[in-house]
């Protein structure tokens, strides 16, 4: 629809690459722990993430693959999808996007 907008909010590849760690763990309520391990797949196109929750019963294990995009990759993909303009922002508050921005927000206009 002409004039329509779409907003995509994610963690950008630039931010993730600058802070990448292979393992992390978090203390949860009730003496439980959340263990997280990450693996970069070839070409930095995806991250394979394993979450293990332990304590308070049987351990639970989940594995997901998350596609990651740089600002340039996301903009190009949206332009190829038919958006006339794509602005990249560093947050929903409109701050500029840069390699240290915690969020990558793309606003596409038809």
Question: How is this structure best described in words?
Answer:
This protein is mainly β. The protein is 15% helix and 43% strand. A hairpin with a 5-residue loop joins β2 and β3.
Q: What is the fold's blueprint, element by element?
A:
Elements: E1 5-10, H1 13-18, E2 23-27, E3 33-40, E4 46-54, E5 60-67, H2 71-80, E6 85-89, E7 104-109
Antiparallel strand pairs: 1-7, 2-3, 3-4, 4-5, 6-7
Low-confidence stretches: none
Helix content: 10-25%
Major beta-sheet overview: 4 strands, antiparallel
State the end-to-end CA separation: 7 Å
Spell out the key features of this protein.
110 residues; mainly beta; 4-stranded antiparallel beta sheet; 3-stranded antiparallel beta sheet; 2 helices; 15% helix; elongated
